[in-house]
Amino acid sequence: xxxxxxxxxxxxxxxxxxxxxxxxxxxxxGVDRGVTxxxxxxxxxxxxxxxxxxxxxxxxxxxxxxxxxxxxxxPEKDKTDTEIALEWSINQNPESIKIFGATGGRIxxxxxxxxxxxHSIKSETEIEIIDQQNRITLHTPGTYTIKKDRDKKYTSFxxxxxxxxxxxxxxxxxxxxxxxxxxxxxxxxxxxxxHEVGTFSFEDGILIMIRSCD
Length: 214
Known about the structure:
Elements: E1 3-7, E2 26-31, H1 34-41, E3 45-50, H2 57-64, E4 67-72, H3 81-91, E5 96-100, H4 107-115, H5 119-123, E6 126-130, E7 134-139, E8 142-147, E9 154-159, E10 163-170, E11 176-182, E12 197-202, E13 207-212
Parallel strand pairs: 1-2, 1-5, 2-3, 3-4, 5-6
Antiparallel strand pairs: 6-7, 7-13, 8-12, 9-13, 10-11, 10-12
Organism: Metabacillus litoralis
EC number: 2.7.6.2
Keywords: ATP-binding, Kinase, Nucleotide-binding, Transferase
């Protein structure tokens, strides 16, 4: 599998047009109400995970025939449905994983889903959360090239470790050189690329990059 796309059950209004991300290389996974979103877009559903407590029994009966494999879990479990689906996806060794329907709604689910990106460190799999307004990725020390995206004007860097050391931003409206930013810092919020291509790098720590539109 080259790309696995996980569709969770976040608010429908925050969901992108999933058809824009469909190619023959994408395997679609539904999580709880995310299964109904995939059905709505007419996309093939390889697997479905969840306790399905947000779907009525009549809705579920209509969905079963269009799903190749269904894994139903008790609501009383140690991991969220999305984490279970993500771990299964990582075990398939894809080139990348895209997660939809993981933002909006409950703040506890939002925080948990963003922290699921930490799975990309151990698995060495590129994992991205995508919604109508944002694309969210996690990064470890290194140098990264970033291209201007006309649809995503702003780029923010948020530390999720105690400190991110030596962060350097080149090609941005607000450049930085070998700067240290700590957990809770808003220094790197709402930056903008001023060239077609820029770079960001840092020496230690973990940060989240969020590319957002207005």
